[in-house]
């Protein structure tokens, strides 16, 4: 594997994230391989080739091996893998779907992931997200592509209690969103960071 | 802030969408065979309907799918949304406004 | 020591705690629970302001947001203009003064925080009075998600102002129990100090919560001062109560004149006597409560003046028992006094005629002309109002889907009725949502209330002899009078909307809460038409004023507009780059060395790229992965030139047009495989081109087996540019033969760097020998540094967008959107070579055959060389032409076109420009003129390619 230095757009934010209280934890997700899959229609053949039943209900995600399959559109998914290199994942998925008229594109670096955990996560997100995040509506397995502040995001609910959410955001917006989240969490931070 | 019901993602705030003009205006089969006037009609002219109007929308910040909608241009109310492969609903009755008939 | 007008006991104030404040330079005291208005009244102070146009004294005329008189400027803790004394909660350290007409904006930045929160509910109840509480309890007990918002500091609504009883106990005990029950319901959000100020489509209601205003300097700084709640409710119950309406008469603006219900509020809620000797002027029964309560509290009620012929027979006995003189069939025609009312002028009133009057001494004149339901939110939601002749009020006229009006906002004016109506409203909302109301939704029993005597609808006291209505104020804040309405009608205006705009009535801070319906009534009267024909003016948000800071919320400073940055941003910052905004991107514009200005830095950077080697962060370029068996078909249809003939491993420049044949973007296309292309777009065109492709694929050609995916941020793009670029790229990627033969211009090769995939492409946006390096941004810093290291012996020079622009302009490469607008074809750019003649069709092709596109006088892209070899023509300058005899034509001078790009060139050792010029290619060699700061600068027209027109360097 690569020995080249890897950098992350939010390296400069680590200290500020560490100062957050347990009620709003922000953790930068490690880099994972991500592939944008386009395929229609989805059938047993595709499931067999990919090793996962791609979710067909809008606004959902399912575990997929060492990763996830996230619904992005009626013929579009985001497949992630924590064990494969980006180019390996793309090659494997492309081989599986190309024959079915589908496509697979490595988008591992398009977005970065921020994991938000704690009792106040929902209170932070509702400051800039217009969709209903009530746990009854947005429980584990839900996903949404929407706006958080002024950044387009993909939200994945990882728990049923609304206290564990993965936010995927375009890498170039990472700094904006990190600032936005820190600012939104300020009122829950015991020693205000001003 | 109106809600627009994406046929896939459900109701979302209107800022998540982009307007795409009149629906059911297909690209001509053989542009080369059209007169200048016929081509200009396709390129430059659209209906400006008062009332029920079939138009295109794109859920830009969501699933990025295009869909069609029947919207009343006087009340802004969306009466229906339908996928591109659905047939165009008949445009017959007048808009059902937000007002009920009962007092 | 208690201030003189404070009662000995009672009220909702915390008498044990004293609060000190300064008003008009005078230090005064009050209590928590007071408003600034109640504290001032406790000190006997009515007059707080002077009016804006006439400079008349104005006082506190109501007890809440409907007050048209008591405007103050707050100075501490933070300067805020035009607040109502009645809505400013008192806190320690408050400094304010009465407004001399106009307020003053703060000249220091507001350091408070403001934010917004989205909230979704089944039922939103606006107003926590009897009807609202009943509605909220009903909805909460059914298990619905509920929000209850109320503008006051505590729940209770009208119950806070009176002595009503429920279930044989003080009504406020029930209020406390209801609030506790709601607090115990997990799905209920209950917000006080929260004003629903706008109701919009699809159950969207905006509410402003004043979170820390009442804490003064003690407000925690990390908590937002005010919050905008963006509430999305499946159903809304509007229980916003009613505003008391005054009756207009001469000099009705004199301080000491107040709405009758307000006096009752000051007495019961704040423990304040608003005067010692009161005259009560009414047209309905409700003011009798005030008269009797004040009398019991020790105020001498001189008379109740009731405009109705019989007054209120049912209240007569009570008045007699209290020793209050009742004057039925009488009106107040005017007031006397200087800065405070000293006398009310009272006269008999029968059949619309006013008799001879007399003066009654008083320091308080209370007025009630009936009640206007607060229908604002209903009306904003496009509900139509109907006029109720009995109440003399406009009521909700029809049911709206998803919005119910309940309680006195719907014209129900008794307590039992309001409770029942609140429950009815909530039940209707629940049923519509498919939620079953709870079996037990008991409400407290209110004492049976007697049927009141019908009110008299009286908008104004008719003119007594000599009065012209010029001191009969309709809108106190705008100093607008009955005479002004008469003048508007005299000017021919009939529509109430026109009367409003002519007189400015209802356009002040209070938005006509007391004046609006009066204007309708008086206008109707003057026109001799029924008031229902006049109607009301349109109710628009906000219901009460909202600070811009609150609307801006957290979208300020760094969060105002997202800044997009590339993976190399930190490096650029450390290198001292000066940044440029390109859309939301921050891109290095140039990297000045000590002592360099932009011109010097750019000349140096250009020279390096033309003679040695330069390097650019081009990561913001749009990138789209186009995949599928029909990928080439799609690109053939969208580009003007042929893409299907492109070989795998090769690159082609392409132009994209709209159906109108005008250029919308350009870029290069790499064929990665038979069924796969990488499309590169301009930075600004990235999202637009992807959307354009998706639009055609989804809406027109769903049968094409092709998919388009954005990979803009999947790859950083690092152009290494200049004669030495081959040495640098060859050194960093030894696995690639970078020779011209093995790796020619417009081809690409894949390689890797320590296992990381890298793509190299011979693409040149500078006209120089150049290699673009593509790599996953995770490794951008590492690869960038390797390139810099390898380039050090060659003096590698990082350059920014300004140099990029100069280099491309010297080569005549247009920037779409800068050198073009929506009216430029590929032919106009001199790119006929990029327009396929073989393809039967592509987007835009048919439009090229339109006659207008064959006009030889179309504007075409050309180069301009200022003859003085010195002037940098400002971009956007017009290009003009002399007449044949050398004279400038008379104005308007015909324009030939305009300068689109203009720079200094290191290579040419002179400034140059690109311009769109009418019939430009025919003019090559001619001299045109460009006005610059009043001087005509001659410029030679040239071809657009000024450097290496043969392309020898690029191909090298």
Largest sheet report of chain C: 7 strands, mixed
Number of strands of chain C: 50
Residues in helix, % of chain B: under 10%
Count of separate DSSP helical elements of chain C: 22
The shape of chain B is: globular
The average pLDDT of chain B is 87
- Level of helix content of chain C? 10-25%
CATH fold topology of chain B: Folate-binding fold
Relevant CATH superfamily of chain B: Folate-binding superfamily
Structural class of chain C: alpha+beta
Over all CA atoms, what is the radius of gyration of chain C? Answer: 38 Å
Task: Describe what is shown at a glance.
The complex is a heterotrimer of chains A (194), B (103) and C (956). Chain A has 194 residues and is of the alpha+beta class.
Structural overview:
The complex is a heterotrimer of chains A (194), B (103) and C (956). Chain A has 194 residues and is of the alpha+beta class. Chain A has helices at residues 14-18, 44-50, 86-98, 121-125, 174-184; strands at 25-28, 33-38, 61-63, 68-73, 76-81, 103-106, 111-117, 143-148, 151-157, 164-170. In chain A, strands 1-7-10-9-8 form a 5-stranded antiparallel beta sheet. A 5-stranded antiparallel beta sheet of chain A has the order 3-4-5-2-6. In chain A, a hairpin with a 4-residue loop joins strand 3 (61-63) and strand 4. By secondary structure, chain B is mainly beta. Chain B has one domain (3-101): Folate-binding fold, CATH 3.30.2270. Chain B has 1 helix and 6 strands; from the N terminus they run E-E-E-H-E-E-E. Chain B has a 4-stranded antiparallel beta sheet with strand order 3-4-5-6, with no helix packed on it. Chain B has a two-stranded antiparallel sheet with strand order 1-2. The longest helix of chain B has 9 residues, at 36-44. Residues 93-103 of chain B have low confidence and may be disordered. Chain C is α+β, with helices and mostly antiparallel strands and 956 residues long. The longest helix of chain C is centred in the middle third of the chain and has 19 residues, at 415-433. The mean pLDDT of chain C is 95. Chains in contact: A-B, A-C, B-C. Chains A and C meet through helix 3, strand 6 and helix 5 of A and strand 8, strand 39 and helix 19 of C.
């Amino acid at each position: 594997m690569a020995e080249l230095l890897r950098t992350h757009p939010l390296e400069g934010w680590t200290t500020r994230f560490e100062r957050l209280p347990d009620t709003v934890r922000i953790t930068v997700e490690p880099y994972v391989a991500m592939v944008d899959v386009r395929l229609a229609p989805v059938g047993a053949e595709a499931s067999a080739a990919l090793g996962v039943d791609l979710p067909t209900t809008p606004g959902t995600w399912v575990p997929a091996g060492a990763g996830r399959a996230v619904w992005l559109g009626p013929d579009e998914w985001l497949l992630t893998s924590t064990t494969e290199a980006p180019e390996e994942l793309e090659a494997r998925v492309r081989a599986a779907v190309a024959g079915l008229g589908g496509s697979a594109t490595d988008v591992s670096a398009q977005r970065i992931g921020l994991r938000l955990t704690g009792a106040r996560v929902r209170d932070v997100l509702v400051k800039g997200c217009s969709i209903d995040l009530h746990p009854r509506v947005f429980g584990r397995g839900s996903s949404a592509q929407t706006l958080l502040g002024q950044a387009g995001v993909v939200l994945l609910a990882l728990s049923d209690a609304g206290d564990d959410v993965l936010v995927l955001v375009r890498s170039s917006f990472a700094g904006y969103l990190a600032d936005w989240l820190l600012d939104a969490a300020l009122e829950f931070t015991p020693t205000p960071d001003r | 802030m109106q809600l627009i019901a994406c046929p896939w993602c459900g109701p979302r705030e209107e800022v998540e969408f982009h307007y795409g003009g009149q629906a059911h205006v297909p690209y001509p089969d053989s542009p080369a065979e059209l007169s200048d006037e016929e081509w200009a009609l396709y390129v430059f002219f659209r209906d400006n309907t008062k009332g029920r109007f079939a138009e295109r929308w794109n859920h830009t910040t969501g699933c990025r799918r295009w869909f069609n909608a029947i919207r009343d241009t006087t009340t802004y109310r969306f009466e229906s949304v339908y996928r591109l492969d659905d047939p165009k609903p008949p445009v017959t009755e007048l808009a059902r406004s937000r007002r009920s008939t009962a007092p | 020591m208690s201030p003189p007008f404070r009662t000995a006991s009672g009220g909702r104030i915390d008498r044990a705690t004293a609060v000190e404040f300064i008003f008009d330079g005078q230090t005064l005291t009050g209590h928590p629970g007071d408003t600034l208005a109640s504290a001032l009244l406790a000190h006997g102070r009515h007059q707080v302001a002077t009016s804006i146009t006439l400079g008349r004294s104005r006082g506190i005329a109501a007890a809440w947001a409907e007050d048209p008189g008591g405007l103050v400027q707050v100075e501490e803790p933070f300067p805020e203009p035009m607040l109502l004394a009645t809505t400013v909660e008192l806190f320690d350290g408050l400094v304010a003064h009465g407004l001399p007409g106009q307020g003053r904006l703060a000249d220091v930045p507001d350091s408070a925080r403001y934010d917004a929160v989205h909230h979704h509910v089944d039922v939103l109840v606006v107003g926590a009075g009897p009807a609202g509480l009943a509605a909220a309890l009903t909805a909460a007990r059914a298990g619905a998600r509920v929000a209850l918002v109320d503008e006051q500091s505590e729940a209770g609504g009208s119950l806070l102002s009176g002595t009503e009883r429920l279930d044989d106990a003080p009504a406020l005990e029930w209020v406390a129990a209801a609030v506790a029950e709601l607090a115990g319901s997990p799905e209920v959000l209950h917000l006080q100090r929260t004003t629903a100020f706008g109701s919009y489509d699809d159950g969207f209601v905006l509410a402003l919560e004043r979170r820390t205003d009442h804490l003064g300097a003690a407000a925690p700084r990390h908590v937002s001062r005010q919050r905008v709640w963006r509430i999305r409710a499946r159903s809304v119950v509007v229980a916003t109560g009613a505003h008391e309406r005054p009756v207009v008469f001469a000099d009705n603006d004199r301080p000491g004149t107040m709405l009758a219900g307000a006096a009752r509020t000051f007495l019961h809620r704040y423990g304040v006597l608003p005067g010692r000797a009161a005259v009560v002027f009414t047209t309905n029964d409700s003011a009798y409560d005030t008269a009797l309560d004040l009398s019991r509290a020790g105020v001498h009620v001189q008379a109740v003046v009731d405009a109705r012929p019989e007054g209120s027979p049912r209240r007569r006995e009570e008045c007699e028992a209290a020793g209050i003189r009742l004057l039925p069939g009488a009106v107040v025609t005017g007031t006397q006094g200087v800065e405070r009312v000293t006398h009310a002028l009272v006269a008999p009133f029968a059949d619309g005629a006013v008799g001879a009057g007399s003066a009654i001494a008083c320091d308080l004149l209370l007025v009630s002309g009936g009640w206007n339901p607060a229908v604002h939110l209903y009306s904003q939601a496009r509900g139509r109002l109907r006029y109720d002749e009995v109440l003399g009020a406009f009521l909700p006229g029809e049911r709206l889907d998803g919005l119910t009006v309940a309680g006195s906002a719907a014209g129900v004016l008794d307590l039992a009725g309001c409770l029942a109506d609140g429950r009815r409203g909530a039940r209707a909302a629940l049923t519509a949502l498919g939620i079953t109301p709870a079996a037990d939704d008991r409400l407290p029993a209110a004492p049976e209330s007697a049927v009141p005597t019908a009110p008299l609808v009286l908008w104004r006291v008719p003119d007594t002899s000599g009065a012209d209505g010029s001191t009969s104020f309709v809108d106190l804040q705008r100093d607008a009078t009955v005479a002004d309405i008469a003048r508007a009608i005299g000017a021919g205006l009939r529509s109430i909307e026109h009367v409003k705009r002519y007189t400015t009535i209802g356009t002040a801070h209070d938005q006509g809460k007391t004046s609006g319906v009066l204007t309708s009534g008086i206008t109707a009267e003057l026109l001799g038409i029924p008031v229902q024909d006049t109607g009301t003016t349109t109710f628009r948000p906000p219901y009460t004023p909202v600070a811009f800071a609150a609307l801006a919320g957290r979208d300020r400073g760094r969060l105002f507009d997202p800044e997009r940055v590339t993976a190399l941003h930190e490096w650029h910052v450390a290198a001292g780059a000066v940044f440029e905004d390109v859309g939301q991107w921050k891109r290095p514009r140039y990297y000045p060395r000590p002592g360099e200005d932009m011109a010097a830095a750019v000349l140096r950077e250009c020279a390096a790229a033309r003679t040695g080697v330069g390097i650019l962060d081009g990561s913001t370029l749009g990138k789209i992965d186009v995949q599928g068996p029909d990928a080439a078909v799609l690109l053939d249809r969208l580009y003007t030139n042929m893409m299907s003939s492109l070989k795998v491993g090769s690159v082609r420049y392409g132009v994209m047009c709209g159906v109108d044949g005008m250029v919308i973007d350009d870029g290069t296309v790499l064929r990665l495989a038979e069924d796969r292309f990488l499309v590169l777009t301009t930075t600004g065109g990235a999202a637009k081109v992807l959307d354009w492709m998706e639009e055609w694929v989804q809406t027109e050609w769903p049968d094409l087996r092709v998919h388009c995916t954005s990979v803009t941020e999947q790859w950083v793009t690092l152009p290494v540019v200049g004669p030495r670029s081959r040495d640098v790229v060859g050194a960093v990627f030894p696995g690639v033969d970078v020779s011209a033969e093995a790796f020619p211009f417009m081809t690409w090769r894949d390689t890797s760097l320590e296992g990381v995939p890298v793509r190299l492409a011979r693409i040149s946006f500078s006209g120089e020998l150049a290699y673009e390096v593509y790599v996953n941004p995770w490794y951008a810093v590492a690869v960038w540094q390797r390139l810099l290291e390898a380039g050090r012996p060659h003096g590698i020079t990082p350059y920014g967008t300004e140099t990029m622009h100069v280099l491309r302009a010297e080569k005549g490469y247009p920037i779409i959107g800068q050198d073009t607008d929506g009216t430029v074809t590929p032919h106009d750019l001199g790119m006929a070579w990029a327009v396929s003649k073989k393809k039967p069709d592509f987007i835009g092709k048919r439009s090229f055959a339109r006659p207008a596109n064959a006009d030889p006088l179309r504007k075409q892209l050309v180069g301009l060389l200022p003859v003085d070899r010195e002037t940098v023509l400002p971009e956007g300058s017009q290009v003009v032409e002399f007449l044949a005899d050398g004279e400038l034509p008379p104005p308007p001078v015909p324009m030939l076109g305009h300068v689109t790009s203009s720079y200094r060139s290191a290579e040419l050792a002179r400034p140059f420009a690109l311009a769109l010029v009418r019939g430009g290619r025919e003019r090559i060699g001619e001299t045109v003129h460009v006005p610059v700061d009043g001087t005509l600068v001659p410029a030679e027209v040239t071809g657009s390619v000024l450097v290496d027109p043969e392309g020898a360097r690029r191909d090298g």
